[in-house]
Amino acid sequence: MTLALGCIADDYTGASDLANTLTKAGLRTVQTIGVPAGDLALPEVDAVVVSLKSRSIPAGEAVARSREAASWLDARGAGHLLFKVCSTFDSTDAGNIGPVTDALREDAGEAIALVTPAFPETARTVYLGHLFVGAMPLAESPLKDHPLNPMRDSNLVRVLARQSRAEVGLIDLATVAQGAEAVSARLDALVREGKGAAIADAVLDRDLAVLGAAALTRKVSTGASGLGLGLARALVASGRVAPAAADTDLGGPIGGPAACLAGSCSQATLGQIARAEAAMPVRRLDPARLLAGEDEAGAALAWAAERIGDGPVLIASSAGPEDVAAVQARYGRDAAGHAIEDAMARIAEGLVARGVRRLVVAGGETSGAVVDRLGLPAFRVGPEIAAGVPVLRTTDRDMWLALKSGNFGGPDFFADALRLMP
Ligand SMILES: Nc1ncnc2c1ncn2[C@@H]1O[C@H](COP(=O)(O)OP(=O)(O)O)[C@@H](O)[C@H]1O
Ligand SMILES: O=C(O)[C@@H](O)C(=O)COP(=O)(O)O
């Protein structure tokens, strides 16, 4: 098997977002969890998305895991490597977007990598290097209060430069408007200026097609699903991939109990939880009790066990910025995050032990903790619930999952998801 596109995603929700985008664009795509075994038998596919949980770990570890994934993809002949990062550029000054991009680019022998988190379908646009979330600059959007990586600078040239060894340049919208050759020429000029990465502007899907075509002339790029879309379109346009219809036969209904877990504290998820209260029983975890060593997970599981026979339930740790800040001030940001993720993973494991085979998880790190605990190796990509969120079917057992990026989905996301998971 020779892959047209190899992808390394820095979290699991981001990976399913990308797998969804590539599938919709006509690429036969599989999402693996972690770096697969060397001898993993794959169906005939155009793209593999290797999901890592590397967004919020020390930069050295993120680089090592990404390199391991890159070697696996290279060994399968991947024509181009896309490092999938968040469309809101979630990272800190310590990394990991810069260090991983530097490492993958250097390993591939490339002088420069094109970088863009633009994803217009979900209202992420980049203009003169500044990232907008809807109508708001990144640093004024709810992402300024993210529990793990608060984004307080909208200028991505600056953000990336602070975490990269490479100098960072800009490919502005005026250049993108002139087409792929102009973008390639700009990349060459930036290399001559000593730059090793270039933030690229993009406002519309047509800009992504231009960036995808330019990125494809080099071996490595970094971006969100928007760049994935651009690369997929360029692969199809160049004849390297014959577009395939999405695989609609993922297996029959599974039925049985269903549950939702939310660990995201994004504004979108907080609204979706409030809406779900009208549709299903909702249990809110008390992070302070959990962090004080009380068995909140066990109590939530006992609560769920009494109800899952009657319909779906939702268990959430999610809280607004002030409550999150109070918990973090007392227990530390990473310790609080990990303890809550671990509780969510234990709850998921308990729910599955009680027969749940339809599981919706909100939050990238939360999804990573849950999927790792359940030991799921890979997913096939099903229909789209909302922009950036597909239904997933596990490859090794009968189970439906939806892994939702905190920020994605409409107001009734949980009910919308369960409708597509029969
Ligand atoms: N009430 C809370 N207080 C503090 N941290 C929390 C709370 N609820 C969840 N968290 C943590 O916040 C982080 C949310 O990240 P994530 O799951 O990736 O969501 P998103 O997709 O919105 O980024 C996780 O580490 C989670 O454990
Ligand atoms: O690109 C995106 O916005 C998503 O695919 C993504 O990476 C989501 O991350 P979380 O919000 O942490 O789930």
TrEMBL record:
Q: Which GO terms describe its molecular function?
A: ATP binding; kinase activity
**Which Pfam families does the record cross-reference, listed alphabetically?**
NBD_C, SBD_N
Keyword DNA repair appears in the UniProt entry: no
Q: Which residues form the Four-carbon acid sugar kinase N-terminal domain?
A: 5-229
Q: Does the keyword Metal-binding apply?
A: no
Extract the Gene3D superfamilies matched here: Four-carbon acid sugar kinase, nucleotide binding domain, Putative sugar-binding, N-terminal domain
Ranges of residues in domain Four-carbon acid sugar kinase nucleotide binding: 260-414
Q: What is its EC number?
A: 2.7.1.217
Q: For this UniProt record, give its keywords in alphabetical order, as a comma-separated list.
A: ATP-binding, Carbohydrate metabolism, Kinase, Nucleotide-binding, Transferase
Coiled-coil region:
none
Q: Which reaction does it catalyse?
A: 3-dehydro-D-erythronate + ATP = 3-dehydro-4-O-phospho-D-erythronate + ADP + H(+); 3-dehydro-L-erythronate + ATP = 3-dehydro-4-O-phospho-L-erythronate + ADP + H(+)
Q: State the NCBIfam families in the record.
A: OxoTetrKin (NF043035)
Question: What is the recorded function of this protein according to its Swiss-Prot or TrEMBL entry?
Answer: Catalyzes the ATP-dependent phosphorylation of 3-oxo-tetronate to 3-oxo-tetronate 4-phosphate.
UniProt record similarity statement: Belongs to the four-carbon acid sugar kinase family.
Protein name stated in the entry: 3-oxo-tetronate kinase
Species of origin: Methylobacterium tarhaniae
